[in-house]
User: What shape does this take?
Amino acid sequence: MRVGILHSLSGSMALSEAPLQDAALMAIDEINQGGGVLGTVIEPIVADGASTPTRFAEKATALICQDHVVTLFGCWTSASRKAVLPIVAAHNTLLWYPLQYEGLEQSPHIFYTGSCLNQQVEPAVNWLLQHQGQRLYLVGSDYNFPRTANKLIRAQLSLVGGTVVGEDYVSMEAEDFRAIIDQIQATQPDAVFNTLNGSSNLHFYRQYQAAGITPAQIPIMAVSVAEGEVQRIGPAATGHYASWSYFQSVDLPANQRFVQNFQARYGGDRVTSDPIEAAYFQVYLWKQAVEAAGSFAGDRVRQAAYGQSFEAPGGLITLGANHHVAKPCRIGKTLPSGQFDIVFDTETLLPPLPWLGVETAGFDHAPVVVQILSEVSQWIQKAQDLETTLQQLQQEISERQRTEAILKERDAQLARTQAEIDLTRRLQTLLLPKDEELQQVVGLDIEGLMTPADRVGGDYYDVLCQGDLIYIGIGDVTGHSLESGMIMLMVQTAVRTLVAQGETDVVALLNVINQTVYANVRRMASHHNMTLMLLTYQDGQLTLGGQHETLILIRQGGALEQIDTFELGFPLGLEPDISAFAAKIQLQLEPGDAIVLYTDGISEAMDQAKQQYGLDRLCAVIQAHHQGTAGQIRAAILADLQRHMGAQPLQDDIALLIVKRC
Assistant: This one.
């Protein structure tokens, strides 16, 4: 026979809820070892509510309709319980809910085995009033239980002249509590009443300790922090308080057996807690009800459950006709060991009063009041939703006003920046070699191209003559931004200045240019660098130095050579001195031979399938058109590159330079 176990195994509530699954599985395993229920083995089907009410509703539906479970054990937050309630009601299934909650609900389809407000929150407030003072600060997660509990606390304080000095709600995933802790320090309450849930407790307690607030100064009283949460929080929880019906430190034989069995099954470092105990004993209550009914049918189990008692680890408990459990209240002080020293115990079972005692008042209109109270949590939820909506609207209005002001300033900045970009782009275009300049170079057929991916590119090429010596350069600045373009202009100017001063050695040129680039990129606080190859040509002899892309040499007869330049230099702008890396080699260029220089925007260009153009394909095109002019080779490369890219936009700047000896 299948039963469903539905808890958060992921998300913000997994820290608290995952151990409840373990407790339920342990109870089922014990029951199966004892012969099962009505002679039938129980098969648990586990589902993850993922800390969101909608997921709880989806998983509850799947467990009932697809897995055909006969009952459900699970949920933690009231939001998840309320999401599951219409599902179990529609399918006449029972949900066993092991957590303390706000009350004001009594469904025939849910058994509530945790504490009501009068069994946990009310005694905790009374204890604080007696031992700490009358000024409380309320901190809670933003959903039904904390908001309803805090309304009760306000009412309870007002009867004795107490005061709520502050009240804050945060999301279940909240991690930053600095503003709330600042308010706590400013208001100096006698205690903080904590109704936070899930992993947010870890952040709250640690930041509370980091702010220098000690338990002796302002203690925290929690109603959703048990041994498991304390184990994760660590020393920051020591000295603070919690209110529960059960603690692992309860000195009862049944509890000692329970803790031993739990740790034997899951590890000696595991702890038990009030929700774990309830998740465990409620499985036994269901077993007893099924056996008393002689059936797994929900209606018969419901009737048989009333009055069932069980010797739980925390003591004898009894399930009442109002679907709630009578249980004691205990208050514990956290010890450095992570356990609780029980400083208060009612020592008697407190009757569960989900309707705040109205149900026992014995006046004629009590049912009417109960009906009205049943809608209170809905009113609280609606008020909460309206408050959240109002805050969101106010925030949106403020953000839109700020956005409008920012947009106006950005428009002005954009206009200024666009003007600067246009100027830089024009300068780059103006400083590239003109066609007529290339045509005047004696003995060489030269064609070049530079196309930026954006309006300003970082690719560079240049050709200039100084007497009989021809200088050729090609480079690639990382990125393709305004900074890249500025560095490109910087290098172009430096090269031409040094050439004009008569420097002929490519290694010396590289070293001096690197010093300039290194100093300037540091001044600009830029992370850009540049690969640069410099060549000189005279009477068929080519000297090249500097690290750049593989140089392609195509001989007049069609033989192709690839010249690796990695060992000839180092990227400019990364080191103040690259003299240890810079080197040069010489090549002989015969009539009809050509070299092809390019940047990685060509070799790494992507097609729609994210495949690169590649060096091999580039070489194949060059080899196929090596007998053509430099212009024809350039045109063939660009046409093939376009075929490869198709409709894909240019992702990087490209520079291409073909130099062919006439």
About this structure: Residues 26 and 261 are 9 Å apart (CA to CA). The chain has a mean pLDDT of 91. Residues 376-431 form the longest helix (56 residues). DSSP finds 19 helices and 25 strands in the chain.
